[in-house]
Design brief:
The chain has about 325 residues and is an alpha/beta fold. It is about 45% helix and about 15% strand. A seven-stranded parallel sheet has the order 2-8-7-6-5-4-3. Helix 4 crosses helix 5, helix 5 crosses helix 6 and helix 7 crosses helix 8. About 10% of the residues have low confidence.
Length: about 325
């Protein structure tokens, strides 16, 4: 019988695991904590001091950006890899405002900490047409981006063409707290599309509501999860072959182990339908993503073509979910 393996260790062996330490809603909540009263006073004073250099943004927004960055920058030496910073979602449908906001966030980082390494910053941008065109411009300016709130292959294709470092497909839409309905197919489709067409963009999935959903995505390029879910995984053990059978990437995982390096039991991984997951309330992986070549698509210079394809994606649901931003 195969010895059990720690589930967090297993996940890390298949996927880059990132911690979601401070999203925009958590930041607002955190700033309301009385212990940050002095920080808010300091950043308000700084905003007033530098406001003359930022004519296009109001004092309140500038002060809030300074406050959020002041929460994030002190912990940056304690973590490795990239630091993701979100543009204001209110700018989701304005390319110039997103570009300006991203540039301002980078400038404010260096204002607050002159030695801060800007190469670690990745700007999170909503996956609207305007947002992804902003990513295209930001790439030309040397600013890295991640396309977030992504629910369709059309958005994934455009994000790769725009030069995004990552895309972040939402496993659940924003209302998942009330109506969980995880979507695995877009994650698999995007990753296989990128690999087939040698795209440098990587898939960083997110928004799982439980550890079972995370384990189903073992094998995705990267996954972002909150600390409590990672702690839960670190306390769980199961045989590796059993865990591998859950993954929507189990076909790829099995290929990794054709030499039988999981106790010689590669066959145990491939039992059942290795091409997709259709059980429970998950959407199945489509045959186009699971078998054979995927058509090379292009939208970057054709707004009408993208908008029509995006409007049709998942019978209009992808567009609706993105609009929840």
């Amino acid at each position: 019988m195969e010895n059990p393996i720690n589930l967090l260790d297993y996940l890390k062996s298949k996927t880059q695991v990132d911690v979601d330490s401070l999203d925009i809603r958590d930041a607002y909540t955190e700033l309301l904590n009385p212990r940050h009263a002095d920080l808010l006073k300091k950043t308000a004073a700084l905003a007033n001091e530098i406001k003359a250099h930022y004519h296009s943004v109001n004092f309140e927004e500038l002060a809030m950006e300074l406050s959020m960055l002041s929460l994030a920058i002190p912990i940056s030496p304690k973590i490795t890899g990239a630091i993701l910073v979100m543009v204001n979602p209110l700018y989701s449908y304005s390319t110039p405002k997103i570009v300006e906001n991203a540039q301002r966030l980078c400038r404010l980082c260096q204002f607050l900490e002159p030695k801060f390494d800007l190469s670690r910053i990745i700007i999170k941008v909503p996956s609207t047409w305007e947002g992804l065109q902003a990513c295209r411009k930001l790439k030309s300016l040397g600013i890295k981006t991640l396309a977030t709130t992504l629910f369709s292959l059309e958005q994934a294709v455009l994000a790769a063409e725009a030069g995004c470092i990552y895309i972040s497909p939402f496993l659940n839409e924003l209302k998942a707290t009330f109506d969980p309905s995880p979507i695995f197919d877009i994650v698999v489709q995007a990753q296989r599309y990128y690999e087939q067409h040698s795209c440098s963009t990587r898939v960083k999935a997110c928004a799982a509501v439980n550890v079972e959903q995370i384990l189903k995505l073992a094998g995705v390029h990267a996954f972002t999860a909150p600390a409590d879910q990672l702690r839960e995984l670190s306390a769980m053990e199961e045989p590796a072959a059993k865990v591998a059978q859950r993954s929507v990437f189990r076909k790829e995982i099995a290929a990794e182990h054709t030499n039988g390096d999981i106790n010689g039991d590669a066959a145990a991984i491939t039992n059942g339908d290795a091409n997709g997951v259709t059980n429970g309330n998950t959407n199945g992986v489509t045959d186009g993503a699971s078998k054979g070549a995927m058509e090379k698509l292009s939208f970057i210079d054709d707004e009408s073509k993208f908008r029509l394809a995006f409007a049709r994606a998942d019978e209009g649901r992808a567009q609706l979910k993105t609009a929840q931003v």
